[in-house]
Design goal:
Elements: E1 2-13, E2 26-37, H1 48-62, E3 66-70, H2 74-86, E4 92-95, H3 101-114, E5 119-127, E6 130-135, H4 136-144
């Protein structure tokens, strides 16, 4: 059986590797649809609240109203220096690759899987008209990719 749950969060990002409007700092109201594979144990499989209890805090504490940032983006070090100099704490979600919707899907899939949930796939909505569908097979392939410096996501310390 598959249970579907949807979530939303706001985050800023930029893709420093592009030479178009997306290289500028901007934000999105992201939509996340999770497709959980579950097995019935008696009269029900899983309470919907069991998903929310773990995923909503993940999104609220690490993504919502934060900035997705690639470690190789020159802006990353500038932001770290700013935080050190001023004592300001910015919510930075650190990526080992550019902050594309594909890499965001990889990051979210990894974190949700680490919580013990079995995902069939996720959909990440970047705009009203742009949605990425990301499957378990996509995630397995990304984890096997030797160019990845991490398969387990991290959060910047001290920010």
């Amino acid at each position: 059986m598959v249970i579907e749950k949807e979530y939303k969060f706001y985050a800023a990002h930029r893709n420093e590797q592009l030479e178009d409007k997306c290289s500028n700092l901007h934000g999105h109201r992201y939509g996340l649809k999770c497709l959980f594979e579950v097995e019935r144990n008696g009269s029900y499989t899983t309470l919907f609240g069991d998903f929310d209890a773990k995923i909503e805090p993940l999104l609220k504490n690490n993504y919502d109203h934060g900035m997705l940032i690639h470690t190789a983006d020159p802006l990353y070090q500038t932001l770290l220096d700013h935080c050190e100099r001023t004592g300001e704490k910015l919510r930075l979600k650190v990526f080992d690759a550019p902050t594309t919707v594909e890499n965001l899907a990889f990051m979210l899939f990894s974190e949700i899987t680490e919580m013990g949930f079995r995902l069939v796939g996720i959909e990440v909505r970047e705009t009203d008209t742009s949605v990425l569908q990301y499957s378990r097979e996509d995630w397995v392939a990304d984890c096997r990719d030797r160019s990845r410096t991490q398969c387990k996501p991290t959060v910047a310390k001290g920010t």
